[in-house]
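Protein Record: Sequence and Backbone Structure Tokens
======================================================

Structure line: whole-number tokens from a learned vocabulary of local backbone shapes, matched to residues.

Purpose: to set a sequence beside its fold so the mapping can be learned.

___
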Amino acid sequence: MEKMNCLVVDDEVMGRKLIEENVKQIPFLNLVGSCSNAFEAMEVLQKEKVDLIFLDIQMPGILGTSFLSSLAIKPLVIFVTAYANYAVESYNLDAVDYLMKPVSLDRFMLSANKAYHIFMGKTVIQKEPLEDFFFANVEYSLVRISIPTVSHVEGLKDYVKIFVEGERHPILTKQTMKSVEAKVVPHDFMRVHKSFIVNLKKIESIKQQRIKIGNFEIAVSDSHIGELMERLNASKLN
């Protein structure tokens, strides 16, 4: 098995040690260095071949994001941080993943596998085609809704609004957000807020944790921003 040389960069001793221990559990990862700041990391990069960096963001001297931007040749990077507000910037920097501390071993392994797929030039295995429609109860009638045409879904108290491209008004149906979520999530949809589900393929931009789709701005909750950026990063493998 070909191994990836990896570097850990984190100013917190305990956080750094935890990542090091996780790295040792992954058979295709080879730890070549562990640093407390970006300047130490630069020295390692000059001496060692590094394929993957586990990089903290809030560090003394220079932010991890700024450090990555300064590199002429960039290894694969997985950000490991306690702050959700850098998720959008990490996506713009083509990070493989964005992990929120504390990171479980299962979540760490998932991220490492994603990096390994990229490293080995592999692509995600395509699944069998899914049904691309569902029926919604609208004013005592069943209306067929084509899932790819749905831009987003908004939850109300006892109803949901389903926004469909080409329609002037949303479709109002008496369903739960959970039931609609189950139908659309396999088609690159995601719950980004307790009241909103969005079609990831329809996102035009993200700024200050607000998604823009057409004329709509949709808030992303703090608890979902990390997962959102992970999903968007994962889409690069498809």
Remarks:
- Confidence is low (pLDDT under 50) at residues 123-127.
- The helical segments are 13-25, 38-47, 64-70, 87-92, 105-119, 177-184, 222-234.
- The chain is about 30% helix and 30% strand.
